[in-house]
Amino acid sequence: QVQLVESGGGLVQPGASLRLSCAASGISFSAGATGWFRQAPGKEREFVAARRWTTGAIYYADSVKGRFSISRDTADSNTVYLQMNNVQPEDTAVYYCAAGRPITSTIRTSNGYTAWGQGTQVTVSS
Length: 126
What we know:
mainly beta, single chain, four-stranded antiparallel beta sheet
């Protein structure tokens, strides 16, 4: 049974840093790609970041480029992180990790992924 579990969300002030984790079981991240998406209230789910582990290719949404980074635990290849620096109120959302084998044209879309976590809330507010 495939399971993805996110953690690390919370309430932080603007400018702070936060690290989200995604732990997988029943699936190997190494065989495909891991993506992070987010959904703010009243908005559609949007792409945040992704990394294709077979090639090392990394993708970021323009809105987070230079502030967020996606990486994998060096000791546990089935744990992926989203490091969020200088967070802003517009980063407030439920953050989801996803796993799958997307092709290049779908790596930034929900359709490219077959497994999803339950989400973790990130709230940025002063």
